[in-house]
Amino acid sequence: MIPKLEIRALSYSYHTMAGETAALSNISFTVDTGEFIAVVGPSGCGKSTLLSLISGLLRPDTGSIRIDGTPLSESACRIGYMLQKDHLFEWRSVLQNVSLGLEIQKKLDAPHREYVLSLLNAYGLFPFAQARPSQLSGGMRQRAALIRTLALEPDLLLLDEPFSALDYQTRLSVCDDISSIIREQKKTAILITHDLSEAVSVADRIIILSRRPGRIRKILPVSFPGGAVSPLKRRNDAAFTAYFNEVWNVLQDPDSALSARGGAL
Amino acid sequence: MKQQTIAQQEYVRKQKRRQKTVAALRIFLFAALLAAWEGSARLGLIDDFIFSSPSRVAACLVSMTGDGSIFLHTGVTLAETLASFFLVTAAGILGAVLLWASPDLSEILEPYLVMLNSLPKSALAPILIVWLGNNVKTIIVAAVSVAVFGSILTLRNGFACADPDQIRLIASLGGTRRHVLTKVLLPGSVPLIISNMKVNIGLCLVGVIIGEFLAADKGLGYLIIYGSQVFKMDMVVMSIVILCLVCAVLYQGIALLERRIR
To answer: CATH number, domain at A201?
Structure first.
């Protein structure tokens, strides 16, 4: 089977007058359709750079990105991007905000409008369609931001720490909320986070990156009894702590994972 | 309505009393100044031929209202100010958009704009008269020159401060730089544009008065310079008072626009 996303030997460096900073080095992994991947790593390890590369906002120095087997630049695949802040515009109503992508792509016709309204309805924002973003709670704002992304019917969702601006309690419930929406819509998703417990609670596999320049330390498959149970249920499962500790240990110990892989090669 | 606590009622009463005191003292200050001015003129403490007096100003206003000339002069100044204000606002937005669209151009022009912005524009007025003639064109160009460079720089800096994530968002939704401009920068800069308009209206008035000092036979600036030359100080003071009112009305007009947009 052709994977949804295939990344091979990807490297990227930033250039300034002060010098060159290697952000990512030799990253390779694949993502299957419908899979939920989490990427964790120390801050500044190039997590966000990775998403910018996959979304085509940046071009890789070396390596390739293929979606459904075709190179990214030729792919007709739609990629949705969700950022840390919701960036809902205060001068637009909630409905106008979630339709922004359609408006930009000139697809704001009746069927698409209908689809957006059905999403708002499904995720409890329909009564707020004409409201201003400031009237929404933090969790509702993130849901609106997700609907704005889903409105373009993306094949691949990229989530760049979408919950980190929220307070802890909201964060748990919004994470629960958003990840169940993504599962329900059967989207392929890559979530970047620095919250290890968040990664363990949502992902099918966790990609652990090293300090800058980011290299893959380990790809850890995560499975809980009963398949893709909700993040909150996962957090209460006995296996949760074991996974958490494993991710923690890989991140803590600079040598073991690399040397282990080195030994295997 | 919900029952208010005693403490809340007390608080509201205090605030209202304070507002009333402020309003009363404002009126009192105005009346006291007028009375002191008029009184010292009547008592001969100041020479009302040089310092004028409220009653003389009022008499001048009545006579100029009678022959309608005051409406002509005020109207001319107002029209020139509004014309230059709209030109500045349009040029400010257009210039800022252009500089945003081309970072290279922006960098090349930067020192020139900064220099033109800090140059005292009154120094240009004599040249403008020679180049454009003794007419309304000179006045409007003078007024525009006072405000336009600052306006461009302020708006361009505002655009440059846009959150890069908002630009990333537009890109991720498949938008181009044009969409960044029309969907994010311009609508997001409305508060900035309006606060810039408040500055511009004042600066345009400054420019118009400078222009009228030098190149006019109509307008409040002309009345002021003419009045001082022929020692009609009543006319000068009256023109300044009207100018104050014009400023206040124009500023309030923009404040009103601001409230309507919010």
So the answer is: 3.40.50.300
